[in-house]
């Protein structure tokens, strides 16, 4: 039997993860529902004044997006670890770096990309100006990809633990902070009339660094967790 090429193998792996996610719509809906609930509750706590909501909107939306991503990070490798597929993946001749990228890409497509697509609706609920909505969308596209890559490291290190949800939060939440800072800063800059491009460029640099290094750390974490 011929071994599939690396590109074909990763494409099949990505497709498999997306199909599994589609069969569990709750896993896709939970982050979106969490996003909607928290955004809807903030006006009750801050008051319905449009100016007040607009001032806090960039930070609110980015914090909720970060927490929504964190909510799903624990399950990136969990099901494959439980059924033994992850061990077979580690034994395959394909580069683990690219396999990890396929897992992370699937996670981003069903969480980060969807959050970025629906974010304009929630931004309007918080009275965010149109210029800020554009910056919010692009900052979430870049930032949530970084969050998924970093979250994969924590997921790999805790996949062998039965209750690793709290531990993964402690491990990766500090690494999320720079993304939160520059993501919300991009939106605030756009709202104030300043250029958001420098902040988006920094997020792009973070993404490039994460693509280069995070899968290596994730692969090492998987080997540690499976061998333990």
TrEMBL record:
Keyword entries, A-Z: Cell inner membrane, Cell membrane, Cytochrome c-type biogenesis, Membrane, Transmembrane, Transmembrane helix, Transport
Residue intervals passing through the bilayer: 31-49, 56-77, 97-126, 133-159, 165-187, 199-222
Membrane topology qualifier: Multi-pass membrane protein
Pfam families to which the protein is assigned, alphabetical: CcmB
GO molecular function: heme transmembrane transporter activity
Function as written in the Swiss-Prot or TrEMBL entry: Required for the export of heme to the periplasm for the biogenesis of c-type cytochromes.
Name under which the protein is recorded: Heme exporter protein B
Organism: Pseudohalioglobus lutimaris
Lineage: Bacteria, Pseudomonadati, Pseudomonadota, Gammaproteobacteria, Cellvibrionales
